[in-house]
Amino acid sequence: MKQVSTWIVYIVLFALVVGADASAVEPAFPQKAVKPPALGKQIEQFGSGTNALVAVRLRDKSIVSGYISESSPEGFVVANLSTGVETKIAYPQVVSLAGYNFVTGTEVHHHEGLKARLFRAAMHLMPVQPVPQNNLSKGQFLVIAIVAVVVLILIVKLV
C-alpha cells in the first residue's frame, strides 16, 4: 500500500512539472520553422479585428500582444490595443501563440517544443476531459500545488 501511495505522489509531481512548463518553455535547441500553411489556416479561421486578441512569443523571446489587424499567406499583423502600434510577424518567427476571439468565441493555440508535444500526447491518452482554467494567479496556483504535495507526502508517511 505504501508503494502505491509513493507512486501516486510521483505521478502527481510529474504531472505538475510537465503541465506547468509545457506551454511556457521554449527548448534550448533550435526548432524547425513552423509550417506557414498550418499556422496561417489557424489564424484565418480565428479572424481579425479588435475582438480577436492574441499574445505571440517570437523566436527572439520577445512577446507581442494585441489584436490581429490583418493576415496574409506570409504572416500577420498584430496591433497593440493601447498604443495602436502595428507589428508585422512572419509565420516562421512564431514560437507560441494564444488568443481568443470574443465575437466568434473561437480560441487559437499554437506551441512548439518537446514538452508541449509530450503534454498534448499525454492529454490524448488521459480519459478525462480538460478542466477550464480558473482565475488563480500563478503564485496562488503554486501555493495550492505545494500544499497539495505536502498533504500527499504526509498521507504517505502516515500510511
Measured as a percent range, the helix fraction is: 40-55%
Rg is 19 Å
Count of discrete structural domains? 2
Low-confidence stretches: none
- Strand content range: 15-25%
Describe the structure.
With 159 residues, the chain is an alpha+beta fold. It has 2 domains: 72 residues, no CATH class; 83 residues, SH3 type barrels. 40% of the residues lie in helices and 25% in strands. It has 4 helices and 6 strands. The protein has a 6-stranded antiparallel β-sheet. The mean pLDDT is 77.
Short note summarizing the structure:
The chain has helices at residues 2-21, 36-46, 114-125, 138-158; strands at 52-58, 63-71, 75-79, 86-90, 94-101, 107-111.
Q: Which helices and strands, and how do they pair?
A:
Elements: H1 2-21, H2 36-46, E1 52-58, E2 63-71, E3 75-79, E4 86-90, E5 94-101, E6 107-111, H3 114-125, H4 138-158
Antiparallel strand pairs: 1-2, 1-5, 2-3, 3-4, 5-6
Helix pairs in contact: 1-4
